[in-house]
Design brief:
The complex is a heterotetramer of chains A (423), B (238), C (335) and D (300). By secondary structure, chain C is mainly alpha-helical. Helix content of chain C is 79%, strand content 0%. Classes of the chains: A alpha/beta (423), B alpha/beta (238), C mainly alpha (335), D mainly alpha (300). Chains in contact: A-C, A-D, B-D, C-D.
Chain lengths: 423, 238, 335, 300
Amino acid sequence: MTSTESRRASRRQVLKGAGALAAAGVIGAPAISKAQTGTIKIGVPTILSGRVAILGQTSVGGLKVVFDKFNAAGGINGRKIEMVVRDSKGAPQEAAKVTRDLINNDKCEIILDAEASSAAFAVQEVIREIGVLCLHSNSETSSLTADPKLHVPTAFRTARQGIHDAIGGGDYAAKIAKAKGLKKWATCSPDYAYGRSNTAEFMEYAKHFDGNIQVVEESWPKLFQPDYTEVVTKLLNAKADAMYSALWGGDLVAFIDQANLYGLFDKQASFMVNLGDYGVVDQVKQFPQGVYSGGRYNRTVPATKENEEWYQNYVKTQKHKPTNWSWENAVAAEFVVEALKKTNGDTNGKKMAEAIKGMTLKSQFGTKGTVTMRAEDNTLVDYIIGYGVSLSKEPYVSDFQASAWEPIFELEKQWKKKQGYIS
Amino acid sequence: MSAGEILRVDDIDVFYGASQILFGVSFGVEKGQSLALLGRNGAGKSTTMKAIIGIAPATRGRVSVRGTPVQKFTPDRIAREGVGFVPEDRQIFPEHSVEDNLKIAIKAGVGGRIDWTLEKIYDVFPILASMRGRMGGRLSGGEQQMLTIARTLMGNPDVVLLDEPSEGLAPIIVEKIGELIQRLRDMGTTLIVAEQNMHFCLDIASHVAVIDKGHIVYRGSIDELRANDDVKKRYLAV
Amino acid sequence: MAGRWRDLGLAALGLLVLLLVPVVGAPPAIRDFIMFGMAYGLLAMSLNLLIGYTGLVSFGHAMFFAAGAYAFGLAMQSGKFSIPGAFVLAMAFTATMALIVGAICVRLNEIYFAFLTLAFQMLFYNIILGWVSFTGGDQGLMGGIPRPKFLGIDLADRTQLYIFCSVAFVVCIAILRQVVTSPFGYTLRMIRDNQERAAFLGINVTMVKLACFVISACIAGVGGILLTLFVSGAYPNFGFWTTSGEAIFMILLGGSNVFLGPLVGTVILRLLNDITVSYTSHTELVLGIVILVLVLGLRKGPLDLLADRWENRRQAKAQAVRDAADKDAQAGRDA
Amino acid sequence: MDLDALLRCVGTTSCVVTQLTSGMIIGMLLFLIASGVTLIFGVLNVINFAHGSLYMIGAYAAWTFYQLTGSYFVSALGAAVAVGMLGVLFERVLMSKVYGSNVLMQLLVCYAVVLISDDLIKIIWGPVPLSMGMPPEFRLPPIRFMGGVIPPFYLFMILAAMAIGLLLWLVIVRTRFGSVVRAAAINGPMVSALGIRVNLYYAAVFGIGSALAGAAGALAAPVRSLTPGMGFSILIESFIVTVIGGMGSIVGAFVASIIIGLTRSFGSIGFPLFVDGVMFLIMALVLIFKPSGLFGRPHR
C-alpha cells in the first residue's frame, strides 16, 4: 500500500520535473525553430491587461492593418513580417524585460514600442544598449525625444508629442478666449507626468497667445480615480469662465458623466484635448454642448476619401473602431515598411535608422498629405492636430481647425531652449 | 449495542494536529441514564465530548446516535440528531441578552418533540427569568453556566453532554448547579457529564466511565465505583 | 558548526553554477531570466524571513525593495557616488527606514501588522509619486542609471553585471541562511510558534522582531538594487502593493517552510509569467486558474509538500522498524 | 498645500454645503462596499480581497440589464441579486475550502478570482470603457440648497445607500437571522453545536456582502466608467474604511466612510496632492493607537 503510493508519487514528481524542463525548453526553443522560417520579426511590447487594455488592442490593430497589406503584397525579398506581441501589463520593469526577451530570445529585429509613457522610457534604455530600431508609437511625453540626454540614435517616436498639442491647442484656445472673453481658467487633469506637463504647457501657450488669461484653479484627480465629485464641486466653486482638461479614456467619460450632474458644462467653456477619440466620444451618453475637443482620431478629420476608406477597412478587419493609438501605430508600421524597402530588407538598426531619419511619408494623417520624421530629434511632425467643436452624434466633431505647423515649430524651438535642450 | 442505547461511542481515535489524544475510546449510554465521564485534567474528557458533537471529529471508530453513525456529520447535524452540548468554558454569546441567548437555540427535538419552551425554562431557571434582558457577558460564572445549560435544553435534545459544569465555580454555586442537573436527571433527561470532581458526580450519575491518558480504564455503575478504592486512587486522585 | 561549513560550501557551489551559465554560452535570454529572478528572489526570500520564520505577515515589503532601488538609483544619478558607495548608502537608507517603520509596526499582531505595513507602503508609494522633482513621479528615474567602473569592474557590460548580481545574490542568500540557522533564527521560530512563551523565557520579543524586520528589509533592498541595475531605472510600482502581493505569492508557490522555497516559487512564477505572456494575451485568466488549481489542489507550496511527504515517509519507516522490532520481541517471547 | 483655500471654503456656506454633500456621496458608496467587507470579515473571519471585483461585476451587470430592460431600478435590483448569488457560489465553491487555513491561502484564492474576473470582463464586455449614462428619470437640473449644489441622482444615491445600510443594520440587530449571524461572528462552532446550519449562514452572509457590493456597483454605474480592473482602487479605499472603523463593525464602517469621504472632499481643496497620503496616514494612526479600529472589538 505505502509502496505503490510512493511509487505513484515519485512518478508524478518525474512528470512534474519533465514539465519544468519542457517549460525551460520553451524559453530557449523558439529562437531556433522560428529563425529559419525567414520572417522579419517585429517585437511589440504593449499593455493588453488591466484598465488600459484598449491601448494595446487598438495599437496592435493599427500595426496589423499595415503589415497584413505588406505581407499580402509578398513582403520584401520574399520575407514577410511577423509580429510578436507581448503584454507588459504596463509595468516599466516588465516592459524592459519583455523587450530584451523579444530581441535576445525571439530574435525580433525591430521593436515597435506600443507602451504608455513610463514604460517607454524603460524600453528606451534597452534600445540604447542593444541598438536595434525602435519606434515609440504611443508615448506623448515630450522629453522622450526632445531631451538630448535621453536621445538614442536608433529610437524614434511616431506618436503625437505633448508640446505640439499644447502650442496648437493654446493658439486655438486663445482665439476662442479673446472672442468670448474667457479670462478665468480652471484646469482638471490626471495627476501624473503626462497630465501635469500637458496641462502646464497648454496653459502656458494659451497665456502666450492671450495675455488676459489667468489660471484660478487647478485640480489634479488621480489617474483612474473612480469618483470625480470632489473635483467637480471644487471646479464649481472656482466659478471659472473656461476649463482645460487632459483627462482621457474611461476617466474622461466618468468625469463628463459626473460633471453633467452638476451642470458644470453649462457654466463654462471646456477644452478637452483627449475627447475626440472613439471609445470615449461614443461612450458619453449625455453629451455636453459647446465643448471643444482636441483631434485624436476621427474618420472625418481629414474628410478625405482615403481616411474614410482606412476607417472602413480598419473596422472591417479589426472588429472595433480605431483610436488615436491606431493611427500612431499605423504610421509607425508605414515607416518600418518604407525603411525596409530602402535598405532592401536589411533590418540592421543603424541602417534602418538612417533610412527613417528625416523620411517623409505619404499619409492621410498628415496636414499636407504627408508626415515627416524630423531628423534633428527623431520625432514625428506635420501630422494633423487641432481642435473642433464637439457634437453628440457622428461625426462627433464640427468646425475642425487644424493647427498650422510653422508657429508650432517656432515656439517649440523656444521651449527647447528654455528647457536647456538646445542652445 | 444494546437496544436501549441512545448514544454509543465505539473505539474512536482523535488527533489534535499530530498528537493523538484518544485511543480507542468506547462507551454507551441508555435512555434515561446519566453517565459520568471521570478523569484528571488532560485525560481526554473534553476531547471525547467534542468528538461526539463533531467539533473534534474522530479519525477512526464510530459514534452513533440511536444507531445512526454520525462521526462524519458536522456539529449542527449531530445536534439535530438530538445531541445537546454544554461546553466546558460556558461559551454563552456575551453580546446577546439572556433571552436572545435562549431564543437563538430554539429547535424542535427529534420527531418534532417539544419538551422545553421559554416559559418552562424560566420556570426551571427562575434566576434567568429575572435577568432576561441582561447581556450574557454581564452574568456571573454560575449564572452563565445555568444559561448555557438552559440554552442547550431549548433545542430539546435527547441526550445532553455537560463538559465540566462545576469547573471554576464557587462551592455554593457548584452545589446549585448540581441540584439543577439532578433535577434534569429526575425529569428523565439522558446525561453525559464530564468531570474531574468525582464527588460532584456521585449524586448525579447512575453510571460511570473513567478515562486516563486517552484510554477508558474503568466502566461500571456509580455504586461499584464508590466501592472501588483502587480506581479512585489511581485515576481520580481521591 | 559542521552545518555552517556545509552551507557555505553549498553557497560556493551555487555561485559556481551561476557563474558557469555565461561560460557555457547560455543565450542572453537565460541570463536575463536569472538576473530578473535573482532580484525578485531576494524580495521573496527576505519576506519569508518575516512570514515563514517569524510569523510576521507583512503586506508592505515591497516598500524596502523600492527604497533600495530608489536610493541606489538616485545616488548613482547624482554622479557623486561610486557603485559601492551608492550600494552602502542605499543599505543605510533602507535600514533606517526599516528601523522607523518596524519600530511602529512590530508591536502589533497578525492582521493589524499586515495592514499597518500596507499603510506605510502606500504612504511611501504616494511620496514617490508626489515628489516629482526628486523621484520623477510616475515616470520613475529616467535616462538610465550610470554605471562608472569601479575596481576594474564595468557593470555596463552585461556579463560583468551578471557576475556582480550573482555574487551579491549568493552572499545575501548565505546571510539569510546564517540568520535562520543561528540561535537568533531559533528565537525567531520560537516567537512564531509561541510569542508568550518566548517572552517568558526572557526574550525581548519586540527587539528581536525589529532586528529581523531590518535584516529582511535590507536584503529586499539589495533585490531592488539588482532590479535597478537590470532595467537601468527605478519605478514607483517597485513599491506598489501588488509587488508585495507577488512576493507573497512566490513564497506560497514554492513553500514557506523550506529555506529555498520562495526561490523555487520565484522561478515558477517567472516561468509561468514568461510562458503565458508568450502564448496568450489572457495572462490574467491563465495565472488566476493556475493559482486556484495550486491553492485548492495542493493547499501548500510544492516544496512544503515534498518536505512533508519526505518527513512522513521517514516516520513511516521508523514506525516500520519499531513494529518489526516489536514483532521480533513478540516472536522471541512466543518462542 | 493650500490651507487658505480650505479656510475660505469653510467660511462660505455654499462651499461647505457642496463639499459636505460631495463627501457624503463618496462616503456612502464606499460604505456600501466596506460594510460588505466588514460583515464578511466579522462573521467569517475572512478578508475578501475579491470584493472590488464583485463591485465591478455589479456595475457591468447593471449596465447589461439596463440595455435589456431600460429600467434603472430593475437593473440595480437585478445586479444586486445576481452578484449576491455569485457571492454565494464563490463562497461555497472556493472560499469555504480555505476557511481555517492560513490567511495567505485565502488571499491567494481571492487574488485568483480578481485576475480571472478582470480577464473575463474583458472577454465578455471588451476592453473599451463603457458608460451607462444617466437614466432619464434623473436627468434633472441640480438642486440648489443654501447656495450649494446637489445633483438629484446623488441625493438618491446617498438616500439609497443609507436606506440599504439601515436595512442591513436592522436585519443584523433585530431579526433572528441577525441574532444567529452575530452569534456566529463570535463563536461559530458553538452556534453549530446548537444545531444551526452555520454553513448556510456563512454562505448567506457572503451573499449579502456580495449583494451590497453589487448594489454599490449598480449605483455607481450611471456616473462612473466601467473598465476591467475598476474594482481595484475602491478595494483599497474600502479596506482603509474597514480598518479605521474597526473590522467587523457596520457602524464603524459607516462613520469611517464619512470620515474618508470628507477627507477627500475637503482635502481636494486644502491638500489636493496628498489626499491619498492623508487617508493612509489616518489608517496608520488608528492602527498605531487603537489597532481594533474606532468601533471594533479586539481581534480574536
